[in-house]
Amino acid sequence: MKQKLLASDAGERTFILVLDEGDEAFRCITDFAEREDVTAASITAIGAFRSAMIAFFEFETRHYRKIQVDVQSEVLSLLGDVAVDDEGKASLHLHVVLGFSDGSTKGGHFLEGHVRPTLEVVVGETPADLRRRHRPDLGIALIDVG
Predict the structure, then answer these.
(1) What dihedral angle (degrees, nearest 10) is formed by the CA atoms of 78, 3, 33, 54?
(2) Hey, which residues does 97 pair with through a beta bridge?
(3) What is the pTM of this model?
(4) Buried b vs exposed e over 112-126: b needs ≥16 C-beta within 10 Å?
(5) Are 81 and 90 in contact (CB under 8 A)?
(6) Sign, CA torsion 67/69/74/80
(7) Which ranges of the chain would DSSP assign to H, the alpha helix?
(8) Dihedral of CA 18/16/73/30: which sign?
(9) What is the DSSP string of 74-108?
(10) Contact by Cβ (8 Å): 19, 3
(11) Are 85 and 132 spatial neighbours (Cβ–Cβ below 8 Å)?
(12) pLDDT tens, 11-62?
C-alpha cells in the first residue's frame, strides 16, 4: 500500500491510499488509521477485489450473517467512517457495493477484501474524537455523540 497526504489545514487532513494487488483492504485501512492516529474520518473507495467477505446485520438475532464473495468484483462504492472503540483503537464501519461481470450487484457491511488489481481509498479526517461504544441491547457498537 502507498499513501500520500493530499491536504492538511486547520486540523483536517485528507489522504489517498492506493492498495496493491493482494492487500487485504480492511486490515490496511485499519493499520493506516492506527498509525496516523486518526480518531474521526470519513472513507470512500473504488477499485476491485478478487474475493471479499461482506455481511448483513440480522436485527432479530443481533448477529451478522456473513456472505462470502469468491469471484472478481468491481468496488462500485465503499464508504464509511473511522472512530475510536472502547479500547482506544481505530474502529472502522464500512459498507460496500460490489459489481459483477453480468451487471448484478451485492452489498453489505464490509469485513474483508483482497485487492485485484487496485483499491483507491480517500480518507478525510476531521479534528474531532469520535467514540464507538458497544451497545449490549443491539449487539453492535455505534458512534456515541453524547
Answers:
(1) 30
(2) 77, 107
(3) 0.94
(4) bbbbbeebebbbbbb
(5) no
(6) positive
(7) 25-35
(8) positive
(9) EEEEEEEEEEE-TTSSEEEEEEEEEE-TTS-EEEE
(10) no
(11) yes
(12) 899 999 999 999 999 999 999 999 999 999 999 999 999 999 999 999 999 9
CB atoms within 10 A of CB 32: 19
Q: Locate 74 and state its grid cell.
A: 468491481
Closest residue by Cα to residue 26 from 99, 108, 91, 87:
91
Query: How far apart (Å, rounded) are the C-alpha atoms in residues 86 and 142?
Result: 11
Cell of 55: 455481511
Beta bridge partners of 124: 14, 42
Report which residue type is found at 39: T
Of 125, 88, 121, 122, residue with least CA distance to 11:
125
